[in-house]
Amino acid sequence: MATYTTIPKDEAEPLIAAAPKAASPKFKVTAAALCIACAVAGYQAPAAVGKYLSFGATGGEKLPSSELNGSWDVQICLKGKDYCLGVPNKGNKIQDPPLGGDDDLNRVTLFTKSDSPSQGIQKFRLEKYSSTGQADRYYLRFLSRDGNYDGCVALYGRNGQYSNGGSPIQMQECQWIDNSGGQRQQITLPMGGGNPRRGQKYDGYLDYVLTQKFCIGSTDGSPSNNKDVFSNKCYNTKYTVEYLSNQY
Predict the structure, then answer these.
(1) Which of 25, 125, 146, 184 registers the highest number of CB atoms within 10 A of its CB?
(2) Quick check: pTM over 0.85?
(3) What is the 3-state secondary structure (H, E, C) of the chain?
């Protein structure tokens, strides 16, 4: 599988990510049993199982499944407007690696609100990771319609020309904890107390917690269909997050 960096040249930093924990024997046995059962029965694993084990999808291999402690499906729309976050071409044409910050197919954009978000169409996944002695970490992910890509929603840049905002918001390979990529991917969404239920909605900011001051903003000018979103100061743009599932 191809490897690549998601860090712009003007802000590359040493990668000091902690090594992912090895999967427990119980997890390995469970995964093996699931694979055998699927082969015998001749059907695909249920969607929830596929999300936890990331069968066949690239983009999320660096997040340790042993520390995944829950996730929610969400739809994220500009507060008071009928435009929601999505990925062009239902994510099916995401580049591996991304081409960079300008005019590539990995951009996160706005689309007219769908009343039935589904895989590849305005449905994102908020994942919670729990490590002993550490605060919980959250990543916002997007599974492409064809199931081949399952990366993280990232802030492309935070320094240089992007030090006051204006950075593209981009799909990237997920990065874990301490390296620059991880710092520009860990995010907080409004959750109304920490364990939202299906159908609940909360207004607030989409906050990249380790980059200080930066959140996912709106478009350059009035929002419209398939228009790129950019980073902005956190007090400028609110979104409405609707939880499409209970925590699983």
Answers:
(1) 184
(2) no
(3) CCCCCCCCHHHCCCCCCCCCCCCCHHHHHHHHHHHHHHHHHCCCCCHHHHHHHCCCCECCCCCCHHHEEEEEEEEEEECCCCEEEECHHHHCCCCCCCCCCCCCCCECEEEECCCCCECCEECEEEEEECCCCCCCEEEEEEECCCCCEEEEEEECCCCHHHECECCEEEEECCCCCCCHHHHCCEEECCCCCCCCCCCCEEEECCEECCCCCEEECCCCCCCCCCEECEEEECCCCCEEEEECCCCC
Q: pLDDT by residue (tens digit) across 127-170?
A: 999 988 888 999 999 999 999 999 999 988 888 888 888 999 99
Round the CA-based radius of gyration of the chain to a whole number and report it: 17
Q: How far apart are CA 181 and CA 158, in angstroms?
A: 11
Nearest 10 degrees: Cα torsion 101, 104, 107, 110: 120
Q: How many residues does the chain have?
A: 248
List the CATH code of the domain at 57-243: 2.80.10.50
List the chain domain ranges.
21-53, 57-243
Q: Dihedral of CA 202/203/208/213: which sign?
A: negative
Which amino acid would we find at residue 112? Answer: T
- Round to whole Å and give the CA distance between 172 and 154: 6
